[in-house]
Amino acid sequence: MSDAIPSPRPQHSRSSSISKSARTHSHQRKPSNSTNHLYAIQENQKADMMDTFSPPPPTSINSTMKKPTPRSSSSWRYYLNLFHRQVDSLFDSSSSSSSSSSSLPTGPLLPQDKHTTAFGGPAKPSSRGWLGALARSTIVRFLLFLYVVFSIFLSLHHLWTWLTSESVDARFGDGWIPQRTYDQDKTYSVMDDMTHGLKMSKMFTKANYDTTDSIQPFWLKASETPATDDISLVTVITPGTWSELERLVDYWKGPISVALHMDHTVESMTAITQQYNSNAEISKRVDIHLSESARPNLSVLLPRNAERNLARLFAQTDYVMEMPSNKVPTTDIRRTLETNKEMFDALLRAGDVLVVPTFGFPEQESTLYKLPFSKPRLLELVGENTMFLLDKHWKPNTGPTDLDEWKVASTLYPVKRYDFHYEPIVIESKSVQPWCAERFLDSRSACLFSSYLTGGEFWVLPDDYMVELPETEKSTLSAFDNVIENRLYAKFYWEQCVHHARQLDALGLWKGKRSQHIRTQCSRVIQNWGKGLIGKPE
């Protein structure tokens, strides 16, 4: 074995033909990603460039790019800068396209027409190109950013409200005052928790509970809303007197509030609904409040006086005029009220009522009647004895309305011969006047007696009047019912005298003008029942 040390191998380049000439290109290995137009670089230039762009030592890289720990004092700056860069990239529509294009080869490897779509060749225009342009829009990205921020803050607000809210509703605090009944726009009321039947039975205390539970206010509601200072005509009808309502609408051009008394049958309700919708004037101006009853005829389950109160209660105006459906106004009463609005408002709000005289024909068998539409023409017919002044319970032309004074009257005049059976048609305030006594099946005089005892004056209109026409349906009250009604009314007279006398005395009005009617009308009653308790009897 020889001890000679082998000579080192000469170091060679892998390429056997590396030329140091700048113009030699043969047998030179080229990188696959280089362009077709390259120029050779001198060796000394290469060395200079390597020196210039030499990377920093690893230690310097590690020191500058070290990620801050959570305990670092500048960690919040790092996350803030990171968030800032993310927001900038969100609104920079060219960043995504530039970053993706920089990673692709700059020169084609094959002729362009030989490329496939996957390798950058020609492709058909995409039908969804506008969606991509919309997604790259800075405005769209900005709006999306605002939406996200708004959603976050809204969620935080609801979460905070839920966490800090009390377990008990604030509406039931110490300062809570129940205020509302049916008006949905006002404060919550304890009446919301009451059943419909309970509320209606309290309103109509003399009626049967099951019957009041079936009452439906505004069962059919008018399409027009009247002015509050208008007059609502208030009446009660049945399916058999529907034709009287249609006739009444032709003569009365104002709002009408109707209580419809009927039994609960699908056929009857369907027929009424169709007739209501088929008449444009009725559907425009008439509110119908349904009063269903197990018995089709009038009964103590829901008296007619209670139905009058129902129609008055849900009238949409400040003033009402209650009347039977077989009477029609032949003069423009609404115009009279509008012309004398200031004077009439003062009277009605003070508790007075305006009496509308009623005239009728001596024979109610004819089917054709020539109605007078002016006071002179009416007086001609009265002089010919073809029409008469009608006050129920009195003979023609002899009632408290006083025909002789009405003939010559040119202004309002008071009723001087009032009697507790007097029941004229009156215009009254919806809210000031007492309600009809519901113990009676059908007694309009009971509705007005309380108004008179509380000091209300009855003023007769000098130029307006009603005309009574034959009834489509006769009264269903039996002779026995009439006897009971009369006996109840006699007791009612005494009771109302004592009740209102005590009320006026409690108000300190017993010695004033307000108590003049009750002291005159109830003198004997007060002497027997109220001696020593109610002032000094007359």
What is the topological layout?
Blueprint: H1 43-52, H2 58-64, H3 75-91, H4 95-102, H5 129-135, H6 138-164, H7 196-203, H8 209-213, E1 216-220, E2 231-237, H9 242-251, E3 256-263, H10 266-278, H11 280-285, E4 286-293, H12 304-313, E5 319-322, E6 327-329, H13 333-339, H14 341-349, E7 353-356, E8 358-360, H15 375-383, E9 388-389, H16 403-408, E10 413-414, E11 425-429, H17 445-453, E12 458-460, E13 466-468, H18 479-506, H19 516-521, H20 523-529
Parallel strand pairs: 2-3, 2-5, 3-4, 7-12, 8-13
Antiparallel strand pairs: 1-4, 5-11, 6-13, 7-11, 8-9, 10-12
Helix pairs in contact: 17-18
Region (Disordered): 1-72, 94-124
Biased composition (Polar residues): 60-72
Biased composition (Low complexity): 94-103
Structure description:
- This protein is 39% helix and 11% strand.
- Among the domains are: 197-474, Spore Coat Polysaccharide Biosynthesis Protein SpsA, Chain A, CATH 3.90.550; 481-538.
- By secondary structure, the protein is α/β, with parallel strands linked by helices.
- The chain contains 20 helices and 13 strands.
- The longest helix is centred in the last third of the chain and has 28 residues, at 479-506.
- InterPro entries: Xyl/GlcA_transferase (IPR051292).
